[in-house]
Amino acid sequence: MLQVKNLHASVEGEAILRGINLEIKPGEVHAIMGPNGSGKSTLASVIAGNEDYEVTEGDIIFEKANISELSADERAHKGIFLSFQYPVEIPGVSVTNFIKTSINQIRKARGQEDMPANEMLKKIREKAALLEMDRKFLSRSLNEGFSGGEKKRNEIFQMAMLEPKLAVLDETDSGLDIDALRVVSNGVNKLKSDENATLVITHYQRLLDYIVPDVVHVLIDGRIVKTGDKDLAKVLEEKGYDWIKEELAQQA
């Protein structure tokens, strides 16, 4: 579903990603872990098409098509979704109106008619119930005055409504208490299928107790330096990253 080939990216002339290679198949959950400043959020942003980052080398292949030159909205139309680490507030635009507009823009790009109002309402109710969201929440301005947990829950609600093929979750667990983490993770797990894939970016192994990854990658200094199964995350929780850095130093 996703192939990242020798990806280099920079921001304001500073190199951040230094040759990322990554392959994600349909039905898989991949986790990326690494210390602060290693390039995790940059990778998420570059996959989603954030124009603040300049891709200086390499390609991003999505469903066998090179999307490296596509804009963020064109990538969204193809089925790529990014859950932000720090979701922005949009005063005056309700959660419901935002999601209706988003869905219909994607349908329009795919040559489809707007979703019928009754079908939209039914879907909104179903997905809100899945994420244990109060109906009043849906009429509030997007993220305005939301707690950290409400913002993250709203991100997963958007994901549930948009049904992307590839969901990139950028530190969705940050700022969540255990109850909110459980609800958000439960939503992600229920949306998982053989037709979609998820890339989870996190600092903490605790999220991976709920959203169990098929593959765990360690990102340090803009490169994936180690890949393993879910047990690698547990080792990182116990030992940190210094042992990997020492291995890299010895190899150099």
TrEMBL record:
SMART domains: AAA
Domain ABC transporter: 2-248
InterPro entries: AAA+_ATPase, ABC_transporter-like_ATP-bd, FeS-cluster_ATPase_SufC, P-loop_NTPase
UniProt keyword terms in alphabetical order: ATP-binding, Nucleotide-binding
Listed GO MF terms: ATP binding; ATP hydrolysis activity
Family: Belongs to the ABC transporter superfamily. Ycf16 family.
Record-given protein name: Fe-S cluster assembly ATPase SufC
Organism in which the protein naturally occurs: Psychroflexus maritimus
